[in-house]
Every structure is written in structure tokens, then in C-alpha cells.
Write a structure and sequence with these properties.
The structure is a single chain. The chain is an alpha/beta fold and 134 residues long. It has one domain: Rossmann fold (3-Layer(aba) Sandwich). A five-stranded parallel sheet has the order 2-1-3-4-5, with helices on both faces. Helix 4 links the parallel strand 4 and strand 5. Helix 2 runs parallel beside helix 3. The chain is globular and about 35 Å long. The N terminus is likely disordered. Keywords: Phosphoprotein. It comes from Aquisphaera giovannonii. InterPro entries: Bact_response_regulator, CheY-like_superfamily, Sig_transdc_resp-reg_receiver.
Amino acid sequence: MRVHADPALRVLVVDDNVDTAASLALLFESWGHEVAQAHDGPQAIRVAHEMRPHAVVLDVGLPLMDGFEVAQKLRQLPGGDRVLIVCSSGFNREVDRRRADEVGIDEYLVKPFDPFALEGMLAACRPSRQALSA
């Protein structure tokens, strides 16, 4: 287990697979971050509005609203332009990567991915990102 002296980030994990969301949440918590979970698009928007995350790790294939729509709505929230948005998908299609760019997703990971890749992304987001505004 790694121990981080850096200040904690607020991280929102969004995945309709409850086990995947819980596993990522536990990992981020072990790194010292404050973590919330959501399991569909509308819930993700509500939680983000309340939590004001520094980073969002977002599954593309969500019920009710896909991850691209969620990312687009997150970007429209006050301060949403400063939030790190990382999406994960089972598809490695160019059309999906273009869509991710169009809606402002910062990083696109293809499942299965090394969760420790997220550690570097979160560390890089510390000095340059701010949370959603109140």
C-alpha cells in the first residue's frame, strides 16, 4: 500500500457496476482521497453538484445517461472546466475517442486498465485543478 503526504482530492467514481465502483473507491481512499460513488448519470450530476469533486472517474456505459452526456453536463457546472474527467470504456474505437474529446474528457482508458495509472493522473491534477465551484 502506498502512503501519500499530498493533500487529499475529492474524487467521484461513476460506474453502474457497483463492485467496480466500490473497488476503485477503496483504492482511492487508501491513497488518502475523499471519495463518493454514483451508479447512473443523473445521480452522478447530483453528487458532483453536492461534492464539488477535483476529479471524476467515469464509466462510458451508464444507464439513463451515458458517460459522454455526464461529462458534458459536468463541464457546464460552475468550475466544471477545471475538473479532471477520466472515462473508462470497454471500447477502443476511434469514434468513442473523438466523442470523448468533443465533450471535454481529459483521459480515455480502455478496460481492463491498470488502476495505478489513475494514481499518476490524480497526482498531476493536484496543483493545476480546482474543485467545482459552490
